[in-house]
Design goal:
Length: 168
């Protein structure tokens, strides 16, 4: 497995992984993303200088995207007081969990954000996703809040757990 900055050619694999998460509460988006939507997302992230990374399995001689991570602005970009805080996302392809993919992606993301002068990284996790909360805690994140019933998906209310890691 190799972790590297994402390229446009990785976007079909990113879309495929992300769209699986739409069928869960790992993301609160209810509609699958199209390739053009992800291309716009990627352009926004890279133009802002934010980190976007992929983990690829290159054992077959071809690179298969097995996970991705990214960060972007926290809250409204016009509220400049938040400019040193970013929010992360990390997704791993089904069947690749527990192999260190997520950790390697997050390590690259945290290093990038730190080098970019970011001060805090935030994770927003579904309240029932104890695995993701524990994953972030193992990476040095601390639970700083729980917001009951702020989301709705699958005809039920969802709690949001906020975690943060001070980078510098």
């Amino acid at each position: 497995m190799i972790v590297r900055p994402a390229t446009v050619s990785d976007l079909p694999g990113i879309v495929e992984i992300y769209n699986v998460s739409v069928t869960t509460t790992a993301t609160w988006s209810e509609e699958p993303q199209s390739l053009p939507e992800r291309e716009a997302w990627f352009a926004t992230r890279t133009e802002a200088g934010d980190g976007v990374f992929v983990a690829v399995d290159d054992r077959s001689g071809e690179e298969e995207v097995v996970g991705f991570s990214a960060y972007g602005e926290f809250r409204n970009p016009h509220w400049t007081g938040y400019r040193f805080t970013v929010e992360n996302t990390v997704h791993v392809r089904d069947g690749w969990e527990g192999r260190g993919v997520g950790r390697a992606l997050m390590d690259a993301l945290i290093d990038h954000a730190t080098a970019a002068g970011k001060h805090v990284m935030v994770a927003a996790v579904d309240g029932e996703n104890e695995g993701s909360v524990t994953f972030h805690e193992r990476l040095g994140f601390t639970v700083v809040g729980r917001m009951p019933e702020v989301g709705r998906k699958f005809d039920r209310w969802l709690d949001l757990v906020l975690l943060q890691r001070i980078l510098s």
